[in-house]
TrEMBL record:
Stored SMART domains: CCP (SM00032)
Matching InterPro entries: Sushi_2, Sushi_SCR_CCP_dom
Disulfide bonds: 25-68, 112-139, 207-250
Protein name from the UniProt record: Sushi domain-containing protein
Primary localisation category: secreted
Signal sequence segment: 1-20
Keyword set includes DNA-binding: no
Compartment(s) where it occurs, according to its Swiss-Prot or TrEMBL record: Secreted
Domain Sushi: 23-83, 84-141, 142-204, 205-264
A Gene Ontology cellular-component term: extracellular region
Keywords: Disulfide bond, Glycoprotein, Repeat, Secreted, Signal, Sushi
Species of provenance: Solea senegalensis (Senegalese sole)
Length: 350
């Protein structure tokens, strides 16, 4: 009896609570990155909630408050919270910057090219205030000391060097004082490891007495050994033309540079006619001697029978050989003597 009485007395209480919850608002379900203060779960009609954006996000649209209605529902809001943006990162000289996005909490990483050392943070993150957590670092070049100098040698840097240090990528050229010559690579470079490339040696180099050239002469006939970088000059006799360098030089491998040669002049192999030589028309009998030098150009005249006009065809002297153009026809002695005005060289040019 006591149990039933207690149940009867408690029933109206549960009914009242249940019917009261039908008109309250539950804690609202909000869009991504939208927040409200406090931990309260239920709100009476008329209650107003202020909406805000979570850290690192910016509010757009609105309104930024919602109200619990008598039906137990919240008023609508189009509020959106979008991630804040960080500015594009600055360029990293002599390095690379890696990132996929610049929105809040995006990561950024820095690396340096070969031969450079990173000074500063290797990574950063886009912060809630729209700035990167770290400054762009620096990529400083690896340092080397001055290049080692071989005995009897020197190095000529490609750039002006100040102080006793050099940086990655600095290059230079080794030279030796004659009669010494560079044995090994003459080029040097400060490498990514902070050391110079292998230093060559300076060794005495000599060349044997140089030979003669056909139809030519040399500046010295003394039979002796010649030191590295010593030179001997050559020339040609008469109408022969020197082809190649005027002098040869004793090289670091103990050999002479390439020898020149003397090229023969050419005879113009016609008896009658007029040629174009050195910019002037010349009757062949007036060409004395009847020779042209190696590589000189001569033009002989041919006749266009169809158009009845003359045209010059060039040919070149090559070491004693001058090819007469196939279209050239040497006139007879009568035509040459009595009718020279009708020759291809004298009629209207094509």
């Amino acid at each position: 009896m006591d149990f039933m009485l207690m149940s009867f007395l408690l029933c109206p209480f549960f009914i009242t609570i249940t019917s009261g919850q039908d008109t309250v608002c539950s804690r609202p379900e909000l869009g991504a990155n939208i927040a409200v203060d406090g931990l309260q779960k239920y709100f009476n009609p008329g209650a107003m909630l202020a909406l805000s954006c979570e850290q690192g996000h910016t509010a757009v649209l609105g309104p930024r408050t919602i109200v619990c209605t008598a039906s137990g529902h919240w008023t609508k809001s189009r509020l959106m919270c979008i991630p804040k943006l960080c500015p594009p990162p600055d360029h990293l000289a002599n390095g690379e910057v890696y990132y996929e996005n610049t929105v809040y909490q995006s990561l950024i990483n820095y690396t340096c090219h070969e031969g450079y050392i990173l000074t500063g943070a290797v990574s950063g993150v886009c912060q809630a205030n729209g700035t990167w957590s770290t400054r762009v670092p620096e990529c400083k070049p690896v340092s080397c000391g001055l290049a080692p100098i071989p005995q009897f040698g020197m190095i000529i840097y490609d750039k002006t060097i100040r102080g006793n240090t050099t940086q990655y990528g600095i290059t230079g050229t080794y030279k030796c004082l004659p009669p010494y010559a560079v044995v090994g690579s003459a080029r040097a470079e400060c490498t990514a490891s902070g050391t110079w490339t292998e230093t060559p040696k300076c060794q005495v180099v000599t060349c044997p007495p140089p030979g003669n050239i056909d139809n030519g002469y040399k500046s010295s006939d003394i039979q002796r050994q010649y030191d590295y970088m010593e030179a001997v000059k050559y020339g040609c006799h008469g109408d022969y033309v020197l082809e190649g360098s005027l002098q040869i030089v004793c090289e670091k491998n103990g050999n002479w540079s390439e020898m020149p040669s003397c090229k023969r002049p050419c005879s113009v192999g016609i008896q009658r006619g007029r040629i174009l030589y050195r910019g002037e028309k010349v009757w062949i009998e007036n060409l004395k001697p009847k020779k042209v030098l190696h590589k000189e150009i001569v033009s002989l005249y041919c006749k266009d029978q169809f158009r009845n006009c003359g045209h010059a065809v060039t040919t070149q002297c090559v070491d004693g050989t001058l090819i007469i153009p196939g279209c050239f026809e040497e006139p007879s002695s009568v035509s040459y003597t009595l009718h020279s005005h009708e020759l291809p060289s004298e009629i209207e040019p094509c």
